[in-house]
Design goal:
With 263 residues, the chain is an alpha/beta fold. The protein folds into 2 domains: 16-95 and 179-263, Rossmann fold; 105-178, no CATH class. Helices cover 35% and strands 22% of the residues. The protein contains 10 helices and 10 strands. The strands form 2 sheets. Strands 6-7-8-3-9-10 form a 6-stranded mixed sheet. The protein has a 4-stranded antiparallel sheet with strand order 2-1-4-5, covered by helices on one side. Helix 7 links the parallel strand 7 and strand 8 (213-217). Helix 3 packs parallel to helix 6 (163-175) and helix 6 runs parallel beside helix 7. It is globular, with a radius of gyration of 19 Å. Mean pLDDT is 87; it is low at 1-9 and 129-135. Bound molecules: adenosine-5'-triphosphate. It comes from Streptomonospora alba. Pfam families: ABC_tran. Residues 20-261 form the ABC transporter domain. This is Branched-chain amino acid ABC transporter substrate-binding protein.
Length: 263
């Protein structure tokens, strides 16, 4: 039997609230509308790839979701809770995670120590981290390193890793904090062509194993097709399409937006 329509953001027993819901989300700066009335809902465990030509507003949308910027209109909901006015750390506590930039990796510490520190930050133990870093190994650290296929590099200095392995480490740091919704901003950026397939496999394993919801900005079409359940296509700040990859790519509006650029 079809369920009765519910108030946006409300959950029913048969229909849990979306992991992420954006309602009429807009952001304007200096008179320019950068994000324009974006509305979408990602189910728990869904993999959504956010694509669009350069300057479409993808990073700006990420900033609105993670709380780095405040929208001029609209709402952001995490598992049904309105977090529009919450700061980034409050959203982190609710299970939102964003990949760290390479700079957040301690280059002189080992892979294992880096992950151990991230795990301690989650449990509020970070004030003791320098003392504990030396013994950062533990079941959680080992499990996370296994999952991102870095267990064999656990004793290596983080600064000496290849670009691909650094991306895996950034993912491991994120996982050590136990996120439910992960924002991945161009995970393949700077990664050599030979490492793209491996890293794609790691991201797929992570999402399946942890059953987390993922929102990822990425340009590599083969990566999108391998990972994404749905594509959210942005153009000039607006959402042109939000559908299964084949459907979204066949959309005439999407094709027109990408005219002259590789889809
Ligand atoms: N703080 C800001 N002030 C003014 N304009 C901004 C600001 N941030 C972003 N923009 C503009 O908003 C538009 C969208 O930028 P954004 O970085 O979100 O796009 P993008 O889709 O992530 O692009 P790319 O694929 O090139 O990273 C661009 O024209 C950019 O110049």
């Amino acid at each position: 039997m079809p369920t009765a329509p519910t108030r946006a953001g409300a959950a029913t027993e048969s229909e849990p609230a979306p992991a992420l819901e954006l309602q009429d989300l807009s952001w304007a700066v200096g008179g320019a509308v950068i994000v324009d009335g974006v509305a979408l809902a990602a189910r728990s465990g869904e993999f959504v790839a956010l694509i669009g030509p350069n300057g479409a507003g993808k990073t700006s949308l990420f900033n609105l979701v993670s709380g780095l910027t405040r929208p001029t209109r609209g709402r952001v909901l995490l598992s049904g809770a309105d977090v529009t006015r919450e700061r980034p750390y409050q959203r982190t506590r609710r299970g939102l995670g964003r990949t760290f930039q390479t700079s957040s990796v301690f280059a002189d510490l080992s892979v294992e120590e880096n992950v151990g520190l991230a795990a301690q930050a989650r449990t509020g133990d970070s004030h003791r981290f320098w003392r504990r870093a030396a013994s950062a190994s533990g079941p959680r650290t080992a499990e996370v390193l296994e999952l991102v296929r870095l267990a064999h590099r656990s004793g290596a200095e983080a600064g000496g890793l290849s670009h691909g392995d650094k991306r895996k480490l950034e993912l491991a740091l994120l996982l050590a904090r136990g996120p439910e919704l992960i924002l991945l901003d161009e995970p393949m950026a700077g990664v050599s062509a030979g490492e793209v397939g491996e890293l794609t496999g790691v991201i797929r394993d992570v999402q399946r194993e942890r059953r987390c919801t993922v929102l990822m900005v990425e340009h590599h079409m083969e990566v999108l097709l391998e990972l994404a359940d749905r594509l959210a296509v942005m153009h000039h700040g607006a959402l042109l399409a939000f559908a299964a990859p084949e459907t979204a790519m066949a959309d005439p509006q999407v094709q027109a937006a990408y005219l002259g650029e590789p889809l």
